[in-house]
Design brief:
This protein is of the alpha/beta class. Helices cover 44% and strands 19% of the residues. It is built from 13 helices and nine strands. A hairpin with an 8-residue loop joins strand 1 and strand 2 (18-26). Helix 3 (71-84) crosses helix 6 (126-143) and helix 3 packs across helix 10 (254-281). The longest helix is centred in the last third of the chain and has 28 residues, at 254-281. The chain starts with a strand and ends with a helix.
Length: 320
């Protein structure tokens, strides 16, 4: 069976990208949704392993904080990228592996340009990544449970603003990226007992009409709907998929947690480039994560510089 998870990072900020990521694991069939933390217990843990032997896989908010740094998050994400794809030699290559399309978009933004002296990995020791990656591969083989799909859709500022202007709704812009992931999963894995697990989208409790509109060639059956969890089945001939929207989905399905981590890692890595670019032009500038209050502090501080550059607000500042 295939268990996939979808999650996002960067929904609320006024600066930087919105990233919606997807992770899928192949694992032996089960009657119900199995716990992959249990199946991968020798190598994956919901909590930080003080000995550093297990990968920390959980909601990105539990794995990463500005005070703790990127090391734990980066080690886990790079190991999963290597299992689903290949080992990446630099950040641009890592981004290309999970989102080939955005590479062209990035070239249009000076603040996301690859730095000649850019360190990679950004914070974790490369040897630690390789050791963990080798151990993860062995555990995946022993448990017959491994990451087969790790992908992202990175929506940069101009693309975000264009999508919001088109839909008049930030939630719709985000959900459009979720739908792209779902479509790819259905095309690739719906003949393999596919489960897709997502966090609730914008507080919604009902998704039937939206799924019917997005996947009109598929038959939809509503399995259950409640404030905590909504479950649906899509079918098309011999192909089928179960789709679950649940509160705190990253705590019930490891692939959702892994998707959350990829989304956060890509956003943090791109914000690292963003801050470095602006600090090269204005050395006393305090970096920002792009969230509302501090994001506007940053915007105001670079206003004279933006004026000299002739930079339009729509090129830099997210509209909602």
């Amino acid at each position: 069976m295939i268990i996939a998870g979808i999650d996002e990072a960067g929904y609320g900020p006024v600066l930087g990208p919105l990233v919606v990521s997807c992770c899928a694991f192949a694992t032996p069939d089960a009657d119900t949704l199995p716990c992959l933390w249990e199946r991968l217990s020798r190598m994956a843990s919901k909590s930080r392993d003080k000995r550093g032997q297990k990968l920390h896989v959980n909601d990105s908010k539990a794995v990463y904080s500005p005070s703790q740094g990127l090391k734990e998050l980066e080690r886990s994400v790079l190991c999963l990228i290597e299992q689903a794809h290949v080992k990446s030699a630099n950040l641009t290559e890592a981004i290309r592996l999970v989102d080939p399309v955005v590479i062209t978009d990035l070239a249009a933004y000076d603040w996301y340009a690859e730095e000649l002296d850019e360190r990679f990995p950004l914070q974790v020791d490369p040897a630690a990544v390789q050791i963990s990656s080798n151990a993860w591969r062995i555990e995946s083989e022993n448990s017959a449970t491994g990451c087969v799909h790790y992908a992202a859709h990175v929506m940069l500022e101009r693309q975000f603003n264009a999508m919001v202007e088109k839909t008049r709704n930030k939630a719709s812009a985000s959900f459009s990226l979720v739908a792209r992931h779902m479509d790819q999963l259905l095309k690739t894995y719906s003949d393999q007992d596919l489960w897709i697990v997502c966090d609730r989208q914008g507080g919604r409790e009902h998704y039937g009409s939206t799924l019917r509109m997005m996947f009109e060639d598929w038959s939809l059956q509503i399995e259950s709907e409640s404030p905590e969890r909504a479950e649906y089945r899509l079918s098309q001939g011999s192909r089928s998929a179960r789709i679950v929207f649940a509160e705190k989905a990253e705590s019930i399905a490891l692939p959702v947690a892994a998707a959350s981590m990829l989304a956060k890692y890509l956003r943090e890595a791109l914000m690292h480039r963003f801050n470095r670019y602006w600090q090269q032009h204005q050395s006393d500038l305090k970096p920002t994560a792009g969230y509302y209050t501090d994001g506007w502090r940053f915007i105001n501080e670079i206003e004279p510089l933006r004026g000299k550059m002739g930079l339009k607000d729509a090129d830099l500042i997210r509209s909602r």
